Amino acid sequence: MEKIANTKRERKVFRSRIVIASVFMIAMAFLLIYRLFNLQIINHDYYTEEALGNHLHMLPIQPIRGNILDRNGKVLATNKLSYRLTITPEKIDNINDIFIELQISDLIDEEDIERFNKNLSRYKEFHNIPIKYNLSESVAAGFLVENQLSGVEIEPYFHRVYPNHSSSSHIVGYVSSMSKEDKDYYDKDNYAGTTFVGKTGIEKQYEKLLHGLLGEKQIERNVDGRVVDSQVIKASKPGQDIYLNIDLDLQLAAESLLGDSRGALALIDVNDGSILSLVSTPTYNPNWFVGGISIERYQQLKKDKELPLFDRSIKGLYPPGSTIKPMIALAGLELNKITIKDQIFCPGYYKLPDYSRKFNDWKRYGHGHVELIEGIAQSCDVFFYDLAYKLGIDNIHDSLTHFQFGNITGIDLPGELGGILPSREWKKINKDEPWYRGETLIAGIGQGFMTASPLQLALATAAIANKGQLFSPQLLMHSQTKSGDIYEDDKKPARQIPIKDINNWELIIEGMKQVVYGKLGTARRLNHKLTYTLAGKTGTAQVFSLDPEEEYIAENIEEKLRDHALFTGFAPIEDPQVAIAVIIENAGSGSSTAAPLARALLDVYFIKNPIKENSSSE
User: Fold this and answer.
1) What is the pLDDT of residues 128-180, one digit of tens each?
2) Strand runs labelled E in 203-342
3) CATH entry, 64-244, from 3.30.1540.20, 3.90.1310.10, 3.30.70.330, 3.40.50.150
4) Annotation says 236 is catalytic
5) Fewest 10 Å CB contacts: which of 100, 273, 298, 565?
6) Would you state the pLDDT for residue 83?
7) What residue segments make up the domains of the chain, in order of their start?
8) What digits encode the pLDDT tens for the residues 487-497?
9) Domain 248-476+492-608 bears CATH identifier 3.40.710.10
């Protein structure tokens, strides 16, 4: 059967298809033209930059960290050219295979891998990310000759070094890997790519001065990812060098004198608050932390019962014991509770009215009749029990506040603790108990709730030496740029301790002088062949309280429960230069252990700084 064609309908369908196809082609042509116009004209700059970004990268240039030096320019912390192993994730297909290869070659271990993965998010894929630091020159050279691993490279860098090892470590501190908190705290632009920051001590306190300013370089890679060109866009600016008031020779001498004991020492210039020596023992080697300390070693340090990481000089809070007696005596004079002529009889104990408990003197059979100067010289507890009772805890608290007890000194080190200066209010808040009369007596001899750091005791002693000027103790002497520009630190003005009668200072100083030169002075053994005059105060601080009838015998008590030994002093008396405070934990009598140590260090100081001829001495 013959099919009859519908020519008219076919032509209509054909024309429709032609129109649709034409519209589609015109639309696509317009879309293509618009896209080309958008790429070539409107967003030309943007896409040009994106295209360049495929082979051009901007990388940070780390500044050289500033040095830390003592007052004489001796280096405490510096930098050494070293080598580090880096991985560039962008160039690697399987990073775990790379880890295995590097472990087989003994270049990295599991801890290195763990640290690398931890820090991975801080970098971009095209960065050379460090995985191992402080490689020796021979290891670096061997790797460069034999390396067949794409994306693994050796590059030079400056490694932080502490040339004196464990000496001054609590002051200087150390640098270590940036933590999440560090990244949130420091300026992200200036710390881009930074691996290490100061964690403790001066390294942390003056981190921003030491760090310097970041630079920037542009690198060009070819299609294989190899660097074919590098150009510095902005040079980095080295960190400033930090000069401290510390004298390294005195530091080394003090550390040697303290030896293996648990203790601390502070030596201060009484005329401006400069810290000449600040030591805490035992100590640790800050070099262990640079590049990442092993978990095993860090746990060993943390669990060490001797607490080598703990800075006793500014964080160690001890009962000040009898070293507080000169300040109590000054309060008594100022508030007219006692005069130079007043005497009290000491039978070896003190009793409050209507109170059964005896408060024993350190001298079991007593001191007999004692007045103010002898009370200080012989450190008569009964004399100061009676004076504390007359003063009352409110007056004691208010008077000692002037010496900065109970507050931080403001030293330029992180983490300082302020100690406790008890009062009725303090006890109510912290113990929810009333204040008792007996607690006033033991506060008068620096026991009970009261605690202070070695630095606080040195600062208070300096204020006696200079007759009332309380300085903010300062470690920083000045900072200096690599070009030689010096920036002096703005020192805080001294605060004058209010006093009604200037002669009262002289009485207190005379009492401290008799500690060393008096016939019955507790530190009279120190005056043998002294080449300078010395005023001081010994102290013995109880770690726990004995029963009133119980006799203290050190050999019968566990070592860490024995008394702490203390000594504070200043020299020379006529024209004071330095004040010192020494605490040795569980060492017993201050006169037999802490005082001789203090004199030995002062001997070193005055050999280095001879007294001028017009200064007299005894």
Assistant:
1) 778 888 888 888 888 777 777 777 888 888 889 999 999 999 999 999 988 88
2) 215-221, 227-234, 241-244, 263-269, 275-281
3) 3.90.1310.10
4) no
5) 100
6) 86
7) 64-244, 248-476+492-608
8) 987 778 889 99
9) yes
